[in-house]
Amino acid sequence: MEISTVSKIQKKALKKSAADFTRLGFALFFMIGVLTFSFLNNGGVSNNLFLAVAALVGAYMAMNIGANDVANNVSPAVGAKALTLTTAIIIAAIFETAGALIAGGDVVKTIKNGIIDLSAFGGNADPFIWAMMAALLSAALWLNFATMMRAPVSTTHAIVGGVMGAGIAAAGFSIVNWATMGSIVASWIISPVLGGIIAAGFLFAIKKSIVFKEDKISAAKTYVPIFVAIMSWAFVTYIIIKGVKHIWAKILQLLNTLPLISLEITDKPSFFTAFTIGLVVAIFVYVIVKRRVSFNTTALQNTRESVNTLFTIPLIFAAALLSFAHGANDVANAIGPLAAINDAIVNGGVSSDASIPLWVMGVGAVGISLGLALYGPGLIKTVGSEITDLDQIRAFSIAMAASLTVIIASQLGLPVSSTHIAIGGVFGVGFLREWLYVKDENNHTIEDDIAAIEDEKLTKSAYEYELKELEEKDEKSQANYTRIAELYKLIANEKKIIKSTKKSIKKARKIQYVKRDSFNKIVAAWLITVPAAAILAGMLYFTIRGIML
After folding, report:
1. Whole-angstrom Cα distance, residue 426 to residue 200?
2. Rounded distance, CA 340 to CA 108, Å?
3. Averaged in consecutive runs of 10 residues, what is the pLDDT profile of the chain (549 residues)?
4. Between 358-381 and 336-347, two packed helices, what is the crossing angle to 10 degrees?
5. Torsion-angle region of residue 264: left (phi > 0), alpha (psi -120 to 50) or beta?
6. Of 199, 289, 400, 502, which has the maximum CB count within 10 A?
7. Distance, C-alpha 264 to centroid of its chain
8. What is the structure's pLDDT at 239?
9. Host H or E run for residue 389
């Protein structure tokens, strides 16, 4: 028996090792391919070997983004079983790549949000190049470590920490824009709290309007089209504001080629424009979903599980649109240091803006898709099922939070992290479930049980006092003996009620729909991302500087 068990363990270990080596082989093949392409493609550049190494690090960074950051876009849909893991990875890879290549932008700020003052380099390209290399590598290493620990962290925060740490190592603390860093620290609180509140709010609204109703089918016919239309409005507005802003001028130019259309060309869409387009789309979606739900209600049962199925298709669209917006908005920022290195080496100077060559954007887009496919499943499972249990309604609420939070924050000028919003939404849904468990529809709470225990104790004391008086009588009538027997039964019953109620309170207090170990681990990872990446970047800067001098 023991030999058989050991044999099974060995086979399982060998199978896992083979899968690990296969993934590693694909990753190395991609990175070596990028290294070779960059070296051959930039043969006329004086420092092309360093640029090739930077491209290799950029490929490594892109894969780590795919493994860690992209998982948040599809995890709720996978956790709710609206998508299989394989389908989710395919959808995310396609739309991430499309977002990066179609709407990623021709020019980005290479130093995210003005983290450091470029004038401190005095126009000297070498320290700047070394700093960007250190920032890129430190962010990639930290993301790799976080992914291994199954902790979803912010890619933007990792690269910000890397740029800050490398900048300090290169030119001292005065190089850092501390006001900007303060806003980034604020986002650690703003993003998850806002995402959690919005996700919990939508989940509660759906529960009250549909799930808690006796006639769930009629309620679904009325409210599901409204919720899906709101989602459509939010996502169209979100995509226009964050996803296609880089190609907005080109879209307007294309529309102006049509007859009877003459639009003013602007660099990016206004909120009113995005809001209006989103509203028009939402109206069309409402009409379509209303008809579809009315048609499908004959096949529905009056259960929560049946109503859940109505949110499956919206969830699939949400996963695709979130991936597209992430590819368009965050990929360029993540590979910004590689674009900065390329610009500095090719042009021999330091610039706050740098063009992103197509090959650099391609490294980011393909690397993210590959990283997601090879190493993303672990984190997808963590976010989708290991923090709190998700179904379609809960996942729908999280998706709503992801889009609405970004819209609200962008209009208020608040710094937010898409990763923190998504995870905050998961936390919000889980904590709402805990709250609803201890406070049901009838407003029955733990406090009610505690008050009930006190009442039962008073009743029990009254019975005990009466019993004592009767037992102390010298002469007892038959009625007294009958009452004494009755009091013993009443006191025993009160003890049972008190004991049962205490057990109920203890059970309610133990219920945790959000796994606290996952919660603590993720929050800890968020708090140390910027300082960890900064310290690592500083060390790497001095290492690179020592090698190059």
Report:
1. 9
2. 10
3. 55 64 90 91 78 92 88 86 89 85 62 70 84 93 91 87 92 86 82 91 91 87 91 88 78 81 81 91 92 75 84 88 79 76 81 76 87 88 83 90 83 76 90 76 62 84 86 82 87 87 67 76 89 95 89
4. 160
5. beta
6. 199
7. 36
8. 85
9. none
Both structure tokens of 19: 């899968």
d(CA 243, CA 324): 7
pTM of the model: 0.79
How many other CB atoms are there within 10 angstroms of residue 350's CB atom?
24
Residues 239 and 295: their CA atoms lie apart, in Å, by 30
Round to whole Å and give the CA distance between 525 and 523. 5
Closest CA to 227 of 96, 397, 84, 35: 397
Residue 116 DSSP SS3: strand
Neighbours of 126 (CB within 10 A): 17
- Token representation of residue 367: 């690397």
Pair of tokens at residue 511: 């219920």
| 355 three-class SS | strand
Q: What tokens were used for 429?
A: 């849904």
Distance CA(238)–CA(246), nearest Å, equals 14
Instruction: Check if the beta carbon of residue 383 is closer than 8 Å to that of residue 72.
Output: yes
- Alpha carbons 439 and 448: distance in angstroms, whole number: 10
- Residues 71-102: b if buried by 16+ CB within 10 A, e if exposed: bbbbbbbbbbbbbeeeebbbbbbebbbbbbbe
DSSP state of 413: T
Dihedral pair phi/psi, residue 46, rounded to 5°: -60, -40
Do the Cβ atoms of 369 and 62 come closer than 8 Å? no
Residue type, 266: T
The pLDDT of residue 403 is: 84
Cβ-based neighbours of 263, under 8 Å, separated by 6 or more: 252, 255, 256
Token pair listed for 435: 């709250």
At 443, the amino acid letter reads N
Beta bridge partners of 109: 353
* Nearby residues of 29 by Cβ (< 8 Å), 6 or more positions away: none
CA-angle at 207, arms to 202 and 209, nearest 5°: 95
Dihedrals phi, psi of 353, to nearest 5 degrees = -115, 145
Compute CA distances 524 → 154, 449, 534, whole Å: 13, 35, 16
